[in-house]
Amino acid sequence: MATIPQLSRLSSLDVREVWPHEAHHFTQWLLQNADVLSDVLGMDLELTQAEKPVGGFSLDLIGKDLQSGATVIVENQLATTDHSHLGQLLTYAGGTDPSTVVWCAPAFREEHRAALDWLNEHTDEGIRFFGVEISAVRIGDSAPAPLFRLVANPNDWAKRVHSQKAASQASASPRSEAYEAFWTYLLKRIHEERPAWTSARTPSRDSWMTLPFGASEIWYAFAFASPSRPRIELYFGSPDADRNEAAFKVFESRRQDLEAGFGEPLDFQPLEGKKASRIVAWGPTTHTIMDPAQHPQVAGWFIETMTRFRQVTQAFKSATAHQPTAAPLATEGI
Question: Are residues 154 and 189 in the same domain?
């Protein structure tokens, strides 16, 4: 006779049992656990500051979409949505010029959900509004776990059509369409083969696409110098040139180890005249994204090469996290 499995029950918790105070507990927890919000939004999100002053008020959280570099703001509450927080959300949006606006609450009144839908339908495609319902659960006597659910989100296709009609935009170039088609294919492969790399779901129409590195102001990128010259890179992109230089030199000082682990030479580029720096691995010039028949081959090169590149750079990041000779600003989070 087959053994009957013994299963526990999933139980819901009052959010204030897990996060007693919105500002002191939930906002600070979310600042340190942005990946939970990233997963539900389908983007690579980095939250950088809590209680950011906006005029005479304080925005709960601000950060950026690592894929585009655009600003993301988050307004939280631990009660059913109300008009006051909707007003605050719009006030903060006016003071920060975000691309993504997120409202988190345990429950959304229907009129507030409808307000977010209306904003998504009537604003241009450069800004998106999300409603995220927050809750917490546990299995048996386990530790509480967050459970987030989208209750309002933009209809990107409808917004794009509306924007194109309203602005009479010219059709995209064949090259940008080729990039979008390729990144769509590559993202699908990544989510199937390397799902931990990114939460992003929206493909780029540019010649590059970023991935999180795990440190503020540093990220990975897939890119093309031309449609037939692929590369992967570790990009040091702080607005502060000194921070970039210091972080870059920490990696450059271990160049031999990095190249030995990677298995081939790397191109260390200080990018003279710019604030940024990068470390590049170049691909073969026989690869082009203009031919859809080559997409599997090009995507395969990107995934295989990034796998090796991540292994050596992530191991190096961990090994040098507390390196005493490194500049403190440069190694924060490295």
Answer: no
| For range 192-200, the mean pLDDT | 89
On whether both 188 and 145 belong to a single domain, the answer is no
CA distance 163 to 167: 6
One-letter amino acid for residue 242 of the chain = D
Residues 19-47: pLDDT tens digits? 999 999 999 999 989 889 988 888 888 89
Angstrom CA distances, 320 to 33, 240, 253, 264, 315, stand at 23, 21, 11, 22, 9
In this predicted structure, what is the pLDDT of residue 240?
82
Burial class (CB in 10 A: 0-12, 13-18, 19+), 324: exposed
Q: In this structure, are 153 and 226 located in the same domain?
A: no
Residues 309, 326, 62, CA angle at the centre, nearest 5°?
75
**Around Cβ 10, how many Cβ atoms within 10 Å?**
12
281 found inside a domain:
yes
- Give mean pLDDT, residues 202-229: 83
The sign of the torsion formed by the CA atoms of 327, 328, 330, 333 equals positive
Quote the pLDDT of residue 271. Answer: 83
Structural domain range at position 196: 174-319
Q: The domain that contains 252 carries what CATH number?
A: 3.30.1460
Secondary structure of the chain in HEC code, one letter for each residue: CCCCCCCCCEEEECHHHHCCCHHHHHHHHHHHCHHHHHHHHCCCEEEEEEEEEECCEEEEEEEEECCCCCEEEEEECCCCCCHHHHHHHHHHHHHHCCCEEEEEECCCCHHHHHHHHHHHHHCCCCCEEEEEEEEEEEECCCCCEEEEEEEECCCHHHHHHHHHHHHCCCCCCHHHHHHHHHHHHHHHHHHHHCCCCCCCCCCCCCCEEEEEEEECCEEEEEEEEECCEEEEEEEECCCCHHHHHHHHHHHHCCHHHHHHHHCCCCEEECCCCCCCEEEEEECCCCCCCCCHHHHHHHHHHHHHHHHHHHHHHHHHHHHCCCCCCCCCCCCCCC
Q: Which residues contact 25 (CB under 8 A, 6 or more apart)?
A: 19
